[in-house]
Amino acid sequence: MKLQNKIALITGGARGIGAATAEKFASEGASIILADLNEEDVQKTAEELKAKGYQAEGRAVNVTNKDDVEALVQGVQSDYGQIDALVNNAGITSDAQLLKMTEEQWDQVIDVNLKGVFLVSQAAAQAMKAQEHGVILNASSVVGEYGNFGQTNYAATKFGVNGMTKTWAKELGRYNIRVNSVAPGFILTPMTEEMPEKVLNMMKEKSVLNDLGRPEDIANAYCFLASDEARFITGTVLNVDGGVVM
User: Fold this and answer.
1) Is residue 154 flagged as an active site residue?
2) pLDDT tens for residues 87-125?
3) Is residue 80 included in any domain, yes or no?
4) Is 202 among the domain residues?
5) Which entry of 54, 154, 175, 222 is annotated as an active-site residue?
6) Could you tell me which NCBIfam families the record lists for this protein (predicted)?
7) What are the helix (H) ranges across the chain?
8) What residues are designated binding site for NADP(+)?
């Protein structure tokens, strides 16, 4: 198994891509710590994984709160002795065109998608430096490469995540820490499933494969990058988008 005996911390792990990533990692032998703002949801997902025979637990955390984040990472270190992989999956959207976007909408998305990634990565990188190995994986988006109408705040965070990924890869490589991002395209999630068929078809047409991705597609990419098979890959933004960006 690709991740046998690895300890993986996944933020935003209660649902969607985060939950799919947790199950994929667990199926490859990793012990999973799911972190999410919603304690009820994250505990439910952890219990579902344990019912399948996997090693998993859920912990409530606000990734925008430094004290919360430091307590989370210190707790994982204390309980498991190491953190082999961090997946910064936690993220939100709050869309509006530039002329209508409120300061509150801007601040909320920047806090979670950018500050949250910074805080969790900083704390985890300290642990990884001490143990002299680790992998940090960040959730980017194709929006972080070409922008998107009505998503000034979200696009800014994903461009920022790509910049942090490349910067951290340069800074942390000396400690045997690899840092990469995965940039999903249009992914079929419970939220997108509720969209009108016309919108879904338009999203499909943007892909040269004329299809939408699934959470498992992103989970598979994270799993590869977390494994030793990707030992010589760092500072990369991997598009998993069906050819939306080429």
Assistant:
1) yes
2) 999 999 999 999 999 999 999 999 999 999 999 999 999
3) yes
4) yes
5) 154
6) 3oxo_ACP_reduc, PRK05653.1-3, PRK07231.1, PRK12826.1-2
7) 16-27, 39-51, 66-80, 103-110, 116-131, 143-146, 152-172, 190-193, 197-205, 215-226
8) 12-15, 62-63, 89, 154-158, 187
CATH number for 72: 3.40.50.720
243 found inside a domain: no
Residue pair 34/40 in contact by the 8 Å Cβ criterion: no
For 30, the token pair is 């990793």
> Quick one: CA torsion of 206, 209, 211, 215, rounded to 10 degrees?
-100
* Beta strand pairing call for 134-139 and 56-60: unpaired
- Hey, what amino acid is at 228? D
pLDDT tens digit sequence for 176-201: 999 999 999 999 887 677 778 888 88
Half-sphere exposure of 76 (CA within 13 A, CB side): 33
